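Minutes, structural biology subgroup

Action item carried over from last meeting: produce the structure token record for Transcriptional regulator, MarR family (Paraburkholderia phymatum). EB confirmed the sequence was re-checked against the source entry. Recorded below for completeness.
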Amino acid sequence: MDLNLRDIRALVAVAEAGSFTRAAERLHLSQPALTVQIRRLEDAVGARLFDRNSRHVALTATGRELLPLLRKSLQDMETVLRDARALGEGESGTVRVACLPTFAASVLPELVIDMKRDVPRVVFQIRDVVASTVNALVRNEDADVGLTGGEVLDPTLEVLQTGVDRLVAVCPQAHPLARKRRLGLNDLAQAPLVLTAPGTSVRAVVDAALSESSAPLDIACEPTYMMTAVAMVRAGLGVTILPETAREVRAEAGLVVKKIDHPAFVRSIAIVKKRGRTLPAITEKFVTLMRQCL
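Output recorded by EB:
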């Protein structure tokens, strides 16, 4: 059975109007064209659906039984088409984003609010994870778009926008480095350090920068999360190095943030997607907002 929406819409219109003439006017069709649609529908179902003469049109018993089913099918398909159009135009849908925790805790909430203001029907699935996991989620299509850190070497990922995230030192107010206006490489290399765990994008930048110093490093501990690193600094275990945009760096009143006077303490960040994959229209809109923040 081959049914189409126009033929079903024609049957509903004739049944409701009780007249081919009035139904044709409602559908903005000629009466012959409407008759062709009804006949095509009757051929598809294999039964006469209307009894008609020059003055009267009435549904047959088969037509009466089919009408509520076809009317519901028509409503369901029109709903599907409206929803599909909204998805295609970016007026609804789900944004699946993986991003660095620093981005999730700083800029992301405001971006979500802005997006929901413009597109109330948008839904967000957010994964705030380290850079390597961001890349894996996008590569495996568990996220449509990601904001990652460090150099993007994965050939399956396409970089949509790049930016930089400057790193700063965080130490207690009573620490000797707190009295310095800016810190140099040797200042950091000679202090006990609380560094984020190996494998994170921040740690990769810090290791590369500190490798320029010949002094042996005193690494007190290597926590995974930035808030843990801040807690270790508060306890007096050392100095940590974190992105300037991380809210954790200003989470403790007894700590101070110091700029690092060395060009190597900069983390590259990038918006990425799976190469060769088309982003949903709703995600394209969100990427436009993300670009403005880099």
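Discussion: The CA atoms of residues 7 and 36 lie 9 Å apart.
Next step: EB to file the record with the rest of the batch.
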